[in-house]
Amino acid sequence: MSRPRTLILCALSLLAVSPLIISTSGSGLTAQDTGPSIASMVEARRERLAEVALEIWDYAEVGYQEVRSSALLQSELSDAGFSVEAGVAGMPTAFVAEWGSGSPVIGILAEFDALPGITQDAVPERAPLPEKGAGHACGHHLFGTGSAGAAMAVKEWLAATGTPGTIRLYGTPAEEGGAGKVYMVRDGLFEDVDAVLHWHASDHNSASPATSLANKSAKFRFHGVSAHAAGAPDRGRSALDGVEAMNHMVNLMREHVPMETRIHYVITSGGSAPNVIPDFAEVFYYVRNPEPDMVAELFERVVAAAEGAALGTGTTMEYEVIHGLYNLLPNDALQRVMWENLNRVGGVTYTEEERKFAELLHASLPEGSPPLSSAAAVKPYDFVRRGMGSTDVADVSWAVPTAGLRTATWVPGTASHSWQAVAAGGMSIGSKGMIVAAETLALTAVEIFSDPSIVEAATAEHAERLGPDFVYRPLLGDRAPPLDYRRNRN
Hints:
Helix content: 25-40%
Strand order of the largest sheet: 3-4-8-5-9-16
Number of strands: 16
Strand content: 15-25%
CATH class of the largest domain: Alpha Beta
Structural class: alpha/beta
Distance between the termini: 37 Å
CATH architecture of the largest domain: 3-Layer(aba) Sandwich
Order of helices and strands: EEHHHEEEEEHEHEEEHEEHEHHEHEHHH
Shape: globular
């Protein structure tokens, strides 16, 4: 099933975990013989998980088109004994895999979509793959596979120990702009869940509480009248003029928005020939701010700019909301458990061959990037940090207590959405960080299953953060999943 590839694999030290007791000593974890080792259950799957991740890396399927990636993960989970429901919440590549019964119900999120327009071979110098139109520059091939590996290990542990509860893996498509998880939340797929765990590829290891920017996006489509640009310009009305007028007004608006706001756009269609006045043009906008209510307000101002641009250029305009995301809601009670388990697992240590690969990649990064040795460290527990990105995990976090972590699947200093991220994610540096994440997720889930007070504390904190009057209203409204959002209209 996997393509031929030499994998550089390194054994992790095995971690023994009791169903009820995890103890540490000055030099690390002290093994307990009263229960099976959850880490050994992950470790036993290491080679297969690396193969699956590399297959999905090869597929590089963009949002809502992850047919093979989703099917592969579903097959692995089904073979491991999970019941799998595919095509949930109106998304053909979304699925829910479940094992066990009763409470608590622990969910683990899995992503698997690639980014369009960035390709790279698994080599430490710039080497695009012309046959590919997308690449895993955000590490979701590792995310989905590592999460599935964690869920399978937890299932094995539940069965071995007879512990009651349900482990559930959510296969969530189209995180990159398609908001797959929001439709799952909107359809109530998390209503019976006690806690949700997730992780993400990164250039470091951390599990501190964090938040993100809320985000709403739309494609603005202008329609004009085509004509010969030299012979009959007076008979034409340029749809591209509408797009450019809108962009100019929004750029003027930047001076008059809260400082944390981020607005970005790309013209996805602007015409085909200079001598033909374009009768269609499209621009794709993102509007971000820390607060969902402010995003909604700013978005309406962007819409007003588009309406004014159409009026001023003699064109017509329509827009389609593509996605809308809340900001991440932190949960300290869950995050502390996650961070403690990440420390037990530890970071990533490179083999000599991996280090040579990493050094070549590191040389392509900006001067002053963190040293390679930082891949082995775990960042200290910190106050709530605001990330400047956005994620559909956020809407899940408003529905149920949620905690996440990041592990060093990339060379320290690597930016996400870069060719360096694709390169490291396509070889053993990526899969090694994925195993760290899978073990940490599995350990955290086991601790939650073993200690009811964790769910109690997380639930109480979640309710306090929401407040008594909170009502969830998705920023994307009642639209159906945009299954074709990666397709440009010309």
